[in-house]
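Notes from hallway chat w/ T.B., transcribed later so I don't forget. T.B. wanted the structure written out for a chain they're using in a teaching module, and asked if we could keep both sequence and structure tokens in one place. Agreed to drop them here.
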Amino acid sequence: MGRFVTIKDIAKKLNISVSTVSRALRDTYDVNQETKEKVLAMATELNYRPNFNATGLANRSSHNLAVVLPFVTNYYFSTVITGIQEVAYQKDYNIILHITNDSPERELAIIRNLAVSNLDGLLVSVSSPSDACDHFQQILDTGVPIVFFDRVPDAIRTSKVMQDDYNDAYVAVEHLIRQGYKKIAHIAGPEELSFTQKRKKGFLDALKKHGLPIEEKWIIHSGFSQDNGRSDTIALLSLKDKPDAIFAVNDRKAIGAILQLKEMGVQVGKEMGVMGFTNDPASTIVSPTLSTIAEPAFEIGKKSCELLLKHIAKRHFAGEEVILPGALIPRESTRR
């Protein structure tokens, strides 16, 4: 089924009343053993999970919050978690962490196997494409609140906390233009992700405003790792018409680009500018140091958790969409 199974589904399959199914699942004395066994077998077949929010058990708060995110070794996400923890622990909530390794399949498996009856709410940064997030809607439909942060699905109505991907990308590219770069490439993230699209649009609109060329061959979609940054840079430098600057979707890719350029004998800054996005601590260690956009990761974590606690306290809380601005940090990699 395309949603969570309810006792109504079991009742319909067995052609018995909903109240009989409910009593059988609660193992009450007034349902015979044969009916109980049929109900339990059908519940297993349909992968039924109890909706504790529809029972008296809903009032027993578990004080557990699940956090689902793509990475934990990443500076940005580890900082977000710190912000979440500050709010959660002050309110006596426990954090249960789930890592998808940026895999939509892994994300789906995690959500399908969540013990939702033992959770008061979820904080999620998605790995699935924005138009393939029905598994989260199914959780919301059981009454368990979700707040999305950083990577958010567009179609699901609940609270969302994001950095200003479009405007921050625009600022980053405009910085490159003001430094004198005129042929700017973009090494982007996976094309299907919403925030990848927003940063790409900011990149394109900055070029359009300043009348600079937009070349499809200078836009490369791949993963988020340092190795992806290296391979994307190799592809750009293999072109006959090479760019003179690179705007990367995140700092890891930008650092990969810097390392690859140095290995190929290209002077970073003077010959080719490199711009990142995150303000990872590694951006101050790499040489030359990396110009970047500082994301408000800690604040995103705090605000996300604060909103989730509002949803938990007030079931009919309509939710908010919060966009927090980043800050331009110019360094050596864009200095000509």
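Follow-up for T.B.: Residues 52-59 have pLDDT under 50 and may be disordered. Might be a good example for the class.
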